[in-house]
Model the fold of this input.
Amino acid sequence: MFIKTAHAIKSGAINLLHSAKYRSLDDYLIPKADWEANREKYLERANLTDFADCKATLNALEVKLDERYQRVNQRFKAGENQYLTLRTDGTAHVKTPKQEAVESPSLGTFFPERKYISMLEMLATVNQATNFLSEFEHWQSKYQRAKPASKALFAGIIGYGCDIGHRKLAQISSQINENELENVVNWYFSLQNIQNANDKILHFIDQLELPSLYRTADEPLHTSSDGQKVEVNVDSFNANHSFKYFGKTKGASGVMFIDSRDLMWYSIVISSAEREAMTVIDCLMHNDVVKSDIHSTDTHGYSEVIFGTTYFLRFEFAPRIKGLSKQRLVAFKPRSDYEKLGYVLLPNTRVKEAMLEKQWDEILRFIATIQLKITTASQLFKRLNSYSHQHSLYKALKEFGKIPKSLFILKYRDDCLFRQSIEAQLNKVESSNKFSKAISFGHNQEFVQSEKKVKKRSRKSLKVVVASSKTPLSVGITSI
Done:
């Protein structure tokens, strides 16, 4: 009975009433009756009016896809794409040459002559310019409380961000009281406070001229994300065993997001068993400071569902996919039609338009739910992935995602500068991960503290739940 029940829950035959992961899919989306009654208003609020008509949207994509096939084939046959070659089995292979080094003036005038700057001085200087410490508010706003001393807040940031731990930091500091620091960490270092402080720093950096030197005014804002595996030495829902990465210990995955101006604007800790692709949409919609035009990930951050979702949300998704030559291309016309035109780069299969037309309204309801932030994209993806058999909506999103994925692959094969920009942006996020490791030097770079979510059960009792392996304090430090 238990085995049958487990299979029924995973397949969606049975839905739980009180669950974060196994409720009915409709419970996560805009209510069906409300959607049908106010469909036009929801589409307008979610900026999806242009996609209301399924046939018109697919016709426009068909024109784009035909033009892309024509361009890449004509340039290849004319010898204009010297880095694209065809193997004997008919698959395409592209090379990406390194970008030429650009001479730039020395930045020595921006920094003092001495080699080292203390982290405390750095934090104090940034706070003087941005006042980010004002975002650290007490969890209980009912009573007026005296603000903790700045040195205590700085000590908490350094203790968390460097993985030293606030207790050890208090013990090795002459002017920090251990009990006072523990009280500050417990009541002021919430995830929301840290994100608000980091966003305040980003707002300030966004107004400066120096970061803008990394991109021209008309250049799209290119962002990227990448995860790194980190061992976890505390109890956490996000920690799990993975012999490949952690041996006999537990660990998690920390995903960092950075833009072309080197603004590290978000980070999140997830289970190492989860794919990073689930976090991409949530993080792209995190704040109003960094509005990405193009987002790049490695293979772990890519899926066809993400391609489809980012198209509706008007982000260009440009991942670096391992084994790109094995990816299948789609088209709205039969392969034979392109062969008659003399094309050598051909589609593998046709788009299943009937499936998309049948599920189009559900797709729009799904995207509107994400755009209006009724439910997070990661939560919806987790629910769709929890079915033992693929949900009809998931199949339709995956089928639609093959269209922008094909557009991307054709552009990737045809445009050398586009490939170089993807490589350069992914190099930035990999460098940011190295920087985070350099800062988090304590406890052998393990997560030794976890975030606690405190939920009020009654006037006299509090329930403490370990929610994640670590608050992303490194975001605030690395952004500074």
Residues 79 and 397 are 37 Å apart (CA to CA). The first helix runs from residue 2 to 11. The two ends are 55 Å apart (CA to CA). Residues 33-98+222-445 form one domain.
